[in-house]
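## tool: complex_structure
## caller: assistant
## args:
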Amino acid sequence: MIIDVHGHYTTAPGELAAFRDAQLARLENPGAASAALAAISDDQVRESVENNQLRVLSERGGEMMLFSPKASGMEHHVPDPKVAEAWARASNDLVHRVGELFPEHFAPVAQLPQTPAGGLDHVVAEARRTVGELEFVGVNVNPDPSGTWAGLPVTDESWFPLWETLEELDVPAMVHVSTACNPNFHTLGAHYLNADTSVFVQLLQSDLFERFPRLRLVLPHGGGAVPYHWGRYRGLAMRNGWQDPGELLRNVFFDTAVYHQPGIDLLTEVIPATNILFASEMLGAVRGADPATGIGWDDTLRYVERAGLDDDDFAAITEVNARRVYPALDRRLTAQGR
Amino acid sequence: MIIDVHGHYTTAPGELAAFRDAQLARLENPGAASAALAAISDDQVRESVENNQLRVLSERGGEMMLFSPKASGMEHHVPDPKVAEAWARASNDLVHRVGELFPEHFAPVAQLPQTPAGGLDHVVAEARRTVGELEFVGVNVNPDPSGTWAGLPVTDESWFPLWETLEELDVPAMVHVSTACNPNFHTLGAHYLNADTSVFVQLLQSDLFERFPRLRLVLPHGGGAVPYHWGRYRGLAMRNGWQDPGELLRNVFFDTAVYHQPGIDLLTEVIPATNILFASEMLGAVRGADPATGIGWDDTLRYVERAGLDDDDFAAITEVNARRVYPALDRRLTAQGR
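## result:
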């Protein structure tokens, strides 16, 4: 079975965006109408994925996708915690419905109502609601809720309540930023990759996983610059007395959202197969196909298939690791006899 | 001839650091003694490199190194333009002396007195002094003088006077940040690579090189995350109507400061040999050797030698490109009969 751990609901019915617009309008003008999500029918939900993520997943030979709200739309920089909470709930309830309507193809992953200064209480509460009550299989955690890197590294103790909760709930976090609020960083081209790189180095310098040994973090977009500079990190670690980057591999995983063959070849050469999770990030940042090869940019299964992996490593990357790192996903699949 | 385009004077005599300390002390306490650089003898300058960069360069088979002041020490975030000017002058005069004492092995590259808000007049003046009067072969430009990304992208018109000057002087700029002033970004592990990535995407979205067709920019550290994500950039460019990343290769070059074989293999596979410049960044971020191979982390010539290049591509990367991109270097070498 091919499991894609990184899909986003970028095609949600327009009612969701209208709700968001109403939320933001009310922040601008408190006299504006109260934001309420209009009714969305099951048919609308079905249509929104059937001809999009589900079609593409199936055409490419994928069977199951971990499905979270649109990442750039999380917009954790909007500072009002109540607004963030309502936005996360609405977004999560909708990916939950996708998972209920297509249980064999989608398993939900939560957006959390992070804010730059709103604390973690409601963040932890939404993690408990989605994972504990609605059986979400993972969460996305934004290491930069401000969108300007105004906060503290994920290794700071202010983050610990969230890491404790994820250990207790036994779900991994994908470390995924949202929209950049700095004109130097293009959101999809620079901010996403920079975040992956920066968080890896934060972890490398810390003892976070001694404190939270069962915490599991997934770095998307192939880990930003990390595998390409693996030697740099090994050398920096030796020189600075940090742990070796290899030690992080007990807790850190890399997805395959890297959109060309040489990138996937490097990823699978440098990072052990035990720590790579198949992912496409579709329908995401990059749509369309490479005119030189005809392969869809984000059809990363083609690259993984051509990376010269033996059968065990291919199975690890496309299924076995995902079931191990996301035990709630494994329970879902097992209950389905898969 | 092996030309290394990226070396830093990280081993300058202590008098230079004492001068900097006195500068900073006076900013804290205007009553403190005026900063003045103590006399440094030629013997001191010789000793500072003979057993360091020069020894390592020679042992590894390198013949010429482009030599600039320590990058993390540029500290453009210190806001006083006069302090920045004096600091750049002192640092540049010292790398100039290295070049005068060892003309066959070192060619100087300038630090510029950038500040977060001090304008470009004195920056342009120092570029003219070093390149025009002292025959420096290039300059380092910090795309984030604030250290917090508080400024504007390098494609903003506020940067144009500097780009105009570099076109006129006919020297390239290495785009190289200094110390990060944000705890999320480790300077050597994250900030350097993030900057390379971010600037590339700034360029990709802009028409800077239509306006400055003879401007040449070198992205250090193998271009951050860029070659690893080349497919992502091709796809983003197509989707967003930007120029293809390949079009940037008329003006943008990548160095080889990537510290393991798989990274160099990817770089040389993805980026045409015409656009790669041999570099070690030594003595820089990463010192010591990989215990698994015995190869020095930053002994990047070993990786380039093993990258399966044909003779023409090897010569392009190690010599020919450097002489073309840095014409003032070529004039120096030609005058030496090399």
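## assistant note: Strands of chain B lie at 3-9, 64-69, 106-111, 138-141, 173-175, 217-219, 252-255, 276-277. The radius of gyration of chain B is 19 Å. Handing back to user.
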